[in-house]
Design brief:
The protein is mainly α and about 400 residues long. It has helices spanning about 1-10, 15-30, 35-45, 50-65, 70-80, 85-105, 110-120, 125-140, 145-155, 160-165, 175-185, 195-205, 210-215, 225-240, 245-255, 320-325, 335-340, 355-365, 395-400; strands spanning about 260-265, 265-270, 285-290, 310, 315-320.
Length: about 400
């Protein structure tokens, strides 16, 4: 391949050496040689950390691979060389610390708590860090500290996981006592829907049907969300044993506006992830309501009044069979199995370290480390190589917008 040979020639001259490394890095990406690409990115950072592309590429690779410690070190290099603003770097560091804390929680809870607390210091609104720190403090019987931490995070970012952690932060409580705690938490954010939903959930657990209805009543008028419809179904079944009303609410839940979820680049996840599985961007997931498959707002999923029930004249409304049969769930979650296929399944070549020839070049040019040259692929003049993938990586995306 002529381009590859040209890049290898550039390694001979000190003025063109980094250009050669950059070219070989792009060639490794084209051929899906992940090991070679990482080695070349590491060399670029080692030789000149002021070059943004090398730091950017290395951070992106480490984050995708779940190498949190390596990504934290690369992030520090990026900040030292002014590749990121301080506030953006702090948020990115908090996300990486939280990811590492979740990873070590199973075998080192003290370290996980230290990492989560540092993440909250850098980004107090980061829900996964707050929820994890709250649970770990609860496990150490530090009830007051756990409650204060969860309350602080809830004020900034109300989330169901925080409500559950707060309800169980004080062990030994009855379901009614937990309901009382959740009501106190919900009162801190009166304008957010997560509060009433948390209260309704706790009330259903306590079988306090009146409080559950009171919490949900203000949100039943205009197209209640799927979670609210499901809770109302539980109330109808639990309080009155009314199977007809239960089926009615469940039928509405199927076609109701979608609830908030963790979403990144169109991917809907049932849990928070530090890196987007679509683009590899760090801190891409947001807690928000998804849009439908066409890309329009949630109002496309709203049920028109009178379309979900039939009235038989006796005052009992039940969902019609036609409506129940025609209900369709719109699922915009990408097929995880498809996501994992493709580039990730391509055979990986093992990157070879520099040979004697590369060492001789380094000695002539005065370089500390000989330039890495990935294994040469067979030349095929009949094949036209595709253009390099220049999609934005983590740091570029972080620069482009203020991270939430």
């Amino acid at each position: 391949m002529a381009a590859r040979r040209a890049f290898e020639k550039m390694l001979d001259g000190p003025e063109t050496q980094l250009l050669g490394v950059r070219g070989l890095f792009l060639e490794a990406q084209r051929s899906n040689d992940a090991d070679a690409a990482q080695t070349l990115a590491e060399q670029a950072v080692e030789r000149d950390p002021k070059l943004a592309w090398g730091v950017n590429a290395l951070l992106d690779i480490q984050a995708r691979n779940g190498d949190w410690e390596g990504a934290l070190k690369t992030l520090a290099i990026a900040r030292q060389n002014a590749h990121l603003k301080a506030d953006v770097a702090n948020r990115c560091r908090a996300v990486l610390l939280t990811a590492e804390a979740h990873e070590v929680e199973a075998f080192n809870r003290d370290k996980a708590l230290t990492l989560a607390n540092e993440a909250l210091r850098l980004a107090p609104s980061l829900v996964p860090a707050g929820e994890l720190a709250g649970r770990l403090l609860t496990s150490k019987a530090e009830v007051s500290a756990a409650s204060r931490l969860l309350t602080k995070t809830w004020r900034l970012s109300p989330h169901p996981d925080l409500a559950i952690a707060y309800a169980f932060a004080k062990p030994g409580l009855s379901t009614r006592e937990r309901l009382k705690r959740v009501k106190q938490l919900a009162d801190l954010t009166p304008g957010d829907i997560e509060g009433p939903i948390a209260v309704a959930n706790a009330a259903v657990d306590a079988q306090d049907w009146g409080q559950a209805r009171d919490a949900l009543a203000p949100h039943l008028e205009e197209a209640p969300s799927a979670r609210i419809c499901t809770l109302m179904a539980r109330v109808e079944a639990g309080e009155l044993g009314d199977k007809g009303r239960e089926r009615e609410w469940l039928a509405r839940a199927v076609r109701a506006p979608r609830d908030r979820a963790w979403i990144a680049d169109g991917y809907v996840s049932d849990r928070w992830l530090p890196v987007s599985p679509v683009t590899g961007a760090i801190d891409a997931f947001e807690w928000k309501a998804p849009v439908d498959a066409i890309g329009r707002g949630d109002d496309t999923l709203m049920i028109e009044p009178g379309t979900d029930t039939d009235t038989d004249g006796s005052g009992d409304e039940t969902a019609s069979a036609e409506d129940q049969e025609s209900a369709v769930v719109l699922d915009v979650t990408p097929d995880a199995s498809k996501k994992k296929s493709g580039k990730d399944e391509a055979p990986r070549k093992t990157a070879k370290k520099s040979d004697k020839t590369a060492s001789d070049r380094a000695a002539k040019t005065g370089s500390k480390t000989p330039a890495f040259v990935p294994t040469r692929a067979p030349d095929d003049p009949g094949v036209t190589q595709p253009e390099a993938d220049e999609s934005p990586t983590s740091l570029e995306r972080l620069r482009a917008a203020q991270i939430r």
